[in-house]
Amino acid sequence: MPSEVSRRRRAAVDAVTRGALENPGVTSPALRKAASRGEDVPAELATYVDKMARHAYKITDEDLAALAAAGHDDDAIFEISLAVAVGAGMRRIDAGMAALDALDARDEAAGDEAAGAGDEREAG
Asked: What is the mean pLDDT of residues 2-19?
């Protein structure tokens, strides 16, 4: 079961995600959500979205020029980039939070076992 700290972290992360993906913008929330998941994006965005999600440091001026040539203005490119970054970050945060929850569960189980062992010693 997630700890109170994990629940607070999740609430904060969810608020940021909703802001980036659902607030009004020049691109539709549906497009931003698809870009954040890396799926079901228009063909002219697919390569950029994949590259941005996996290797953002490799994005070049040429990549951005290709998006502009396909009809995306600077605001749209920014919103799509932000959505991809949020999605990629969320996947990493989810993995980290799952690891923390597993550690919390392990620690709780170890505490329960230690308490049980103490009870057995006292009964002996």
From this structure: 82
